[in-house]
Amino acid sequence: MGASQSAGTEHEFQDLADRTGFSLEQIGNINKRFRQLSNNEETLSREDLASIPALDNNPIRAQIINAFFDKRNLHQNETGTVQEIGFEEFLMVMTHFRPAAMGLTEEERENLRREKLRFLFNMHDTDSDGTINLEEYRRVVEELLSKAGTIGQETAKAIADAAMLEVASTTRGKMEPDEFYEGITFENFLQILNTFDIETRMHVRFLHMDTATLRCGKSK
Amino acid sequence: MSVRVVLHSPSGSRSFLERGLLLLVMLIFLEGTVLTLGAASSPDISAQDNTGGHDHRGIAGSHDHTNYTYTKKAFPVLSLDYHHIQVPFEISLWVLLASLMKLGFHLIPRLSSIVPESCLLIVVGLLVGGLIKLAGEEVPPVLDSNLFFLCLLPPIILDAGYFLPIRPFMENIGTILMFAVVGTLWNAFFVGGLLYAVCQIEGTYLSQVELLPCLLFGSIISAVDPVAVLAVFEEIHINELLHILVFGESLLNDAVTVVLYHLFEEYSGAGEVTPMDVVLGVICFLIVSLGGIAVGAIYGILAAFTSRFTSHTRVIEPLFMFVYSYMAYLSAEMFHLSGIMALIACGAVMRPYVEANISHKSHTTVKYFLKMWSSVSETLIFIFLGVATVAGPHAWNWTFVSVTVILCLVSRVIGVVGLTFIINKFRIVKLTTKDQFIVAYGGLRGAIAFSLGYLLDKDLFPMRTMFLTAIITEIFFTVFVQGMTIKPLVDLLAVKKKQEAKRSINEEIHTQFLDHLLTGIEDICGHYGHHHWKDKLNRFNKKYIKKCLIAGERYKEPQLIAFYHKMEFKQAIELVESGGGVKLPSAVPSQVSMQNIQPKKLPPPVAERALPQFTKGREEEIRKILRSNLQKTRQRLRSYNRHTLVADPFEDGWNDFLLKKQRLIELEKKMTEMSNYLTVPGAIPDSPTMCRARLASDPNAFYNIKASSDGVPTIQVDLASPQSPDSVNMLNEFSKEGHTGQGLGQREGATGKGLGQREGATGQGLGQREGATGLGLCQREGADRDEDQGLMMKPAGKGEKGEEEGGNKNPGLMRCLSDPGPSNEDEEDEPFLP
C-alpha cells in the first residue's frame, strides 16, 4: 500500500469513527479482520462469512450471517437484503454490539436499548413485515435447538407456542376466542424483554484483537 | 445460690420434683449450657467449670450423703436424670428459641420493614444473655469457634453455594476477585498498619501492642462477612450485579483471611518476617484457595456421580448431597484450606447434574433442607453474637475501638473507589459512583471475624479481650448502623432494584439466542473473548461430563428444553394444587388460547388430518393397562415400606377425601371446557375460531369429542409434536405395559391437568390428541368413581365404556389429584428397568 492510500484510509477511518463511535484502534482492528475475511476484496459475501470455521458449531449461524446482509441493520430505511457488503456496512452491523458508554442519560439508555432490541427483532422478523409471527418464532426456536437432534426439533414447536402464548397474554391480557393475535410487534417485543438488561448484555469486546488470534480465526 | 448448687449433682436434683417444674427447667437449662458448651470449647473455661463443680459438690456433699446411705428404698417410679439428656435438650432449646424468634418477627408487621432481622436477633441475644446474667449465672460461651465453624457456618455457605447465580457470578468474576483478594489485603494492611501507628502515640496506653498482632487484627476485621451480607442484602432487594459483587466478595475473601490469619498468628509467635515468608504466604494463598476449590469440585463430582445411581432409593438422595458437601468442607478444613470455597465449589459443581438426576421430590427436599438449615443457623449466629457480647469479658479502650471503626470505614471506601477505578478500565459495564457507594457501604462484618478473634491464644495475645471488644463493636456498628441505613439509602439514591419477575420462556429463549449471537459475532471478529470460551466449555460439558454424570437420556436435553419442561411441570403442579384451576398459573396463561395465536388459515381438508389414531381395540387395551396399574397401586399401597414415600391414601381421612372429590368435579368441568376449546371439527367450513366459539357454548360439543377418540379424530394436528412431554408420558406408559404404575395415576393427573393447561396453550395435534385420549380415560375413570360415590357427574361420565369399570379405584384417583408427585419419576427410572 502506498503512503497516499494509507493516509486516505486514515481519513476515512476518522470519519467512520466519528459516525460509529468506535475508536480508531478498534476500526483498524475490524478493518484488518474484514480484509482477512474478504480475502482483501472491497466487499464481503455470504460465503466469506460462512467459511469461518468457528461458526460451524453455532446453531444460529444462518441468522447471524443474514443479519450482516439485512438492509434494515445498515441504517437504511429500506428492507430486503444485499448480496455483498463493504467495510462500512460491516462496521455498521458491528456498532450494535458496542458496549454502552459511561454516564448515559435515561433517554440515551432507552434509545440504546431500543436499538439493540431492534437488531434482535430484525433477526427474528425474517419477512420484514414488522411483526414476528408464530411461524417466524418457531423457526427461531428450531434454529436454537437445531444442534439437539430430534428431541430438539420436536419440542421446538411446543416451546415457541408457549412463548408466543406468553407474549400474547402479557401484551394483550384476556382475549376472546375469536380474537386473533397477529404476532409480536416491536412494541410487544420491548415489553416482554422489559426485564432483560439488553444494554448491559449485548456487547462484544473489540479491543485486544491481536494478529495472532486473527490468524487462527480462519483456516488458511 | 443453693438452688444452683444442688443442680450440679444428679442425685440432688431428685429433690427438685417438689419445686416448680418451670423453674427447674429454666435453671437447669441456664446452668447446663455453661457446662456443656463450655466443656466443648476452650480448655480454660471447662477447667474453670471443673473446679467450680468440685466446690459445689463439696458444699452439697452432705446432701448427697444422706441420699446414698438410705439403703432400702422403694423403687423410684419416676426419676429425674437431667444430665442424661442435657446436651441435646439444650441444643434443641436454642434452636427452638431461634425459630420462635424468627417466627415472631414476621408476626409483627411493621417491625421487619424498619429494622433488619439480624439487628433484632442480636438484640434478642443481648436480652437472653442479660437474663442469664441476671439469674446470676455465668453466660455460656455459645459462639465458640468449633461450634461456629463446624456446625453453624457450613449450612449457610452450602445454601449460598448451591443457589449461587452462576451466570452473573462468572460474568463478574474478575471484579469479585479483585475486591476479594486485593481489597481484603489492602484493608488488612491499611487497618493493621495504621492501628499500629495509632497505638504508638503516647497517651493511648497501647504501646505494648506490636505490629504483627495489629496486622493480625487487621486481617480478622477486614473480611466482609457472608452471613451478615446475606442477611442484610436479602432484605433490600438490590439489583443482581451489586448483590453478586458484595456477596461474591464475601465468599471469596475467605481464602485471603485464612491465609493472613495463619500467617500472622504464626509470625506473632516467631516474631520475625523474612521475604521468604512473604513468598511462602503467596504460595500458601494459591494452595488454600485453589486447593479448596479442587476439594469442593471433587466432592461435587462425586455427589453428582452418586446421584446417578440413586433411582431406586429416592429417600436418601438428598442425604448424599448434604453429606458430600459437609465432607468437602471438613476435608478442606482438615488441611487448613478454605472450607468456604470448597463448599461453594461443591454446591455449584454438583447442582446442575444432581438436579437432572434426582427426583422432583428429592429436589424439593434438598431445597427446603438447605433453606431451613441456613436460616436456623443464621438466626442462631446472630442470637449467639448477642449472648457472646454479654458474656464478655471486655476490655474497652476508647482509642482502639473508635480508631478501628473509623479505619474500617475509611479503608473500605478508599479500597473500593481505588479498585473500581482500575476495574472500570477493563469492565464493559462500568460501576457508577452509586454502585461503588453501595459496595463500600455493604461491607458488613460478622460472626466469622468474632470467631476468628475468639480462636486467638490468650497467652500469645494478651490483648485478646481488647481485640474481641473491638471486633464486636465493629460488627455491631456495621450490622446496626450500616445494616439499618442501607435500605433507606438505596431508596434515596434510587439504586436499581432487583426486578421481581420469574423467568419467562421468552427470556430464556433470548438469553440463549443472545449467547449464540455474541459467540457468533466474536467469531466473526476473530476475537476469542469469554463468549467463545464459554461456548467451548458448554460444548465440552455437554459432550463428556454430562454423559458421565447424568443418568439416562436426560443429558441430551438442551437447556432450553429442560427449562421448558420444568416450567410446564411446575404449572401442572400448580394447577393440581389449586384444585383444578380456581386460579390458573400465569406463566402460560389461560385467558389466551392457542387459537388466538394460530395463523388464520382454513383448516386443511379432512383427508390430510386423518392421523394415526387409536382404534377401539387399542383403546380397550390402554384402558386395561390403566386399570391393572391402578389395582397394582392399591396393592402396593397396603404394604408398608419404610424406604419409600408412598403415602397411604386412606390416612387422609374422610373429609379430605370429600374435599378432593369436590376438586375433581371442578377439574372435570375445567377439562370439559378446555377440550371444547381445543377440538376443531374439520368438516365445518367456518373459520376455526368461529367453530370453537360456538362449541364453547354448546354443551353437546363434548360428545363430539368423545366420539372423536373412537372414530376419525377431528382434531387439528399440525402443531404440537408427538414428543411433547405429555404425549411422551402417555406413550411411554402405553408401551411399557404392566409397568408398576403408582406414578401412573399421578401422572395421569398431572399430565391431564398440565394438559388442560396446555390445551389452552399448545395443545393441538398429535401430542394433544394423545393427551386428549389420556384425558378421556382419566375422566372416565374419574367418572366411575364419582358414580361409586353417588355424586353428580359431568358429561364425561357418559363415556361409553365407563360403566364397565367398576370397583373402588379411589385411591388411585385421589393420588392422581392430591399428589403433585413428579411425573418424570418413571422416566428417570427407565434406564434402570430390567
TrEMBL record, chain A:
A Gene Ontology cellular-component term: ruffle membrane
InterPro entries: CHP3, EF-hand-dom_pair, EF_Hand_1_Ca_BS, EF_hand_dom
Domain EF-hand stretches: 112-147
UniProt keyword list: Calcium, Cell membrane, Cell projection, Cytoplasm, Differentiation, Lipoprotein, Membrane, Metal-binding, Myristate, Nucleus, Protein kinase inhibitor
SUPFAM superfamilies found in the cross-reference section: EF-hand
SMART domains: EFh
GO biological process: cell differentiation
Residues annotated as transmembrane: none
Localisation: Cell projection, Lamellipodium; Cell projection, Ruffle membrane; Cytoplasm; Membrane
Gene Ontology terms for molecular function: calcium ion binding; protein kinase inhibitor activity
Topology relative to the membrane: Lipid-anchor
Membership in a protein family: Belongs to the calcineurin regulatory subunit family. CHP subfamily.
The protein's name: Calcineurin B homologous protein 3
Lineage, highest ranks first: Eukaryota, Metazoa, Chordata, Craniata, Vertebrata
UniProtKB/TrEMBL annotation, chain B:
Listed Basic and acidic residues bias regions: 797-807
Polar residues bias locations: 721-732
Bias (Acidic residues): 824-834
Any single Pfam family the record assigns to this protein: NEXCaM_BD
Domain Sodium/hydrogen exchanger regulatory region: 587-688
Topology of this chain in the membrane: Multi-pass membrane protein
Membrane-traversing stretches: 21-40, 115-135, 147-164, 176-198, 210-232, 244-264, 279-305, 335-354, 375-392, 398-424, 436-455
Reactions catalysed according to its record: Na(+)(in) + H(+)(out) = Na(+)(out) + H(+)(in); Li(+)(out) + H(+)(in) = Li(+)(in) + H(+)(out); Li(+)(in) + Na(+)(out) = Li(+)(out) + Na(+)(in)
Disordered, as annotated region: 721-834
GO biological process, one term: regulation of intracellular pH
Protein name (record): Sodium/hydrogen exchanger
